[in-house]
Amino acid sequence: MKQRSFLNRIKAQFTTKSLVLIPIAVGINLIGGTLCSALKLPLFLDMIGTIIIACLSGPWVAALCGFLTNVFLTLVANPVYFPYSVVSVLCGLVTGFMVKAGLFRNIWGAILTWLVCAFTNTVSASLITIFVYGGATGVNGSSLFTAALIATTKKIILSVLSTSMIENLVDKGIVFLIAYLLVQKIPKRFLSQYALGMNEDELEEDW
Amino acid sequence: MKLSNTFVEKDTMIEKINPLTKILAVFCFGLGTLLFPKLWLGFGLIICLFFIAYLGKLLKPFTRLMLGFGLPISLMLLFIQGFYGVNNKTVIADFGFAELGLEGVLYALKIVTTLLVFLGSFYLMNQTTETGKLVAALTNSGLPPKAGYLVLATLNVVPQMQRRMNVIQEAQEARGVEIKGRLVARIKAYLPLLGPVIMSSLTDAQERGMTLETRGFGIKGVKQTSYVQVKTTKIDKIINILLVLFLIFVILASIWMK
């Protein structure tokens, strides 16, 4: 019985409105990537849309959005990104549940979400880099940094983890700052049409 | 970074094969290379892929991809695993600052060949298949139509959003926002871009949602039909059987060789 209500709750997040939002959120995620290449930053910034959709439609929609972002990158940019879809899914879920717990309403909650999300991303992405790619993907400049660290510390896991940690803290920091500012700017009326998300309790009072 | 669908019709044999057959091929080749204990199978498959790329009139971009991805990652992995791999026992060369281990080099080569086979075959599959056809084939074999819609919509929406971003960028430049300059100046210039792009996209999503609902997107208990038809020919069946046989053979050979 409990299992079924859990599944139903996931299903309830996938209304047509949320479904339509997903491609847009994926587009927002990718605009972050375009921004990075325009600014020549060695970052990804590919989570802005995922965070916004986590605030609007809930964790599972955010997870699907993260997954689709990687599917899209796999199809049009480079198949190397596909294994990292696990990372995007996990980050979407973590952010979604923390938003649902009401942590995105003030700046301290947002900072906590940022740290937890950066940590999740670091661990999962490092595991994939080590076990799928043997230590480096060679896609961006951070692989060179990893190689340099390995040469000095002689430890592969430690080097990959610390590179990823630095990269993620900066990357997710910018992403969460932008997303937090944006979510503040979305009109309340717009937020309230999505069934699950930030203002779930307020909605229940209203209806 | 320009992101849009990269399929260009070239009227080759490979384009006529059912997308599902190609996915099976990617799966069989990649898994075969991963399981097989010796390296030559991976190298052989890579050569085969070059031949298939030639058949699909994709030899030039394919070579560029394989070299552009293959060379940096090979060097990087040979460095990381060869010098500092955990399993290194047999030393084949001493460079003074570190020793090159045989096991690490073999491990690195194994990863690189597996990756290249996966990457190369996936690239060929992707370049020779129209995404609409791919999604239609997947929907026919049981993928929920809503999931299919999501993939296709994403492919359509992203170039649209990039166009919108260009328009807004030009508008902001007309207002006097400087896009060039030092890093801080550039970041400052891009922030007033993001807000309008994202907000207008959100309102766009609302419109799309209403349009889809009025056209029966959310109706339950109806079998959705697809405009794109995908056929399974005799050649597809033969290729499928050959691929499965290849995978079984590789699995048996790997067990026997261990």
UniProtKB/TrEMBL annotation, chain A:
Keywords: Membrane, Transmembrane, Transmembrane helix. The chain crosses the membrane at residues 20-39, 51-75, 81-99, 111-136. Gene3D superfamilies: 1.10.1760.20. Pfam families: ECF_trnsprt. InterPro entries: ECF_trnsprt_substrate-spec. One of its GO terms (molecular function) is transmembrane transporter activity. The keyword Acyltransferase does not apply. This is Energy-coupling factor transport system substrate-specific component. It comes from Candidatus Enterococcus dunnyi.
UniProtKB/TrEMBL annotation, chain B:
Keywords: Membrane, Transmembrane, Transmembrane helix. It comes from the Bacteria. Its main location: membrane. It is a multi-pass membrane protein. It is found in: Membrane. The chain crosses the membrane at residues 23-53, 65-84, 104-124, 238-257. GO terms for cellular component: plasma membrane. The keyword Phosphoprotein does not apply. Pfam families: CbiQ. The keyword Membrane applies. PANTHER family: PROTEIN ABCI12, CHLOROPLASTIC (PTHR33514:SF13). This is Energy-coupling factor transport system permease. It comes from Candidatus Enterococcus dunnyi.
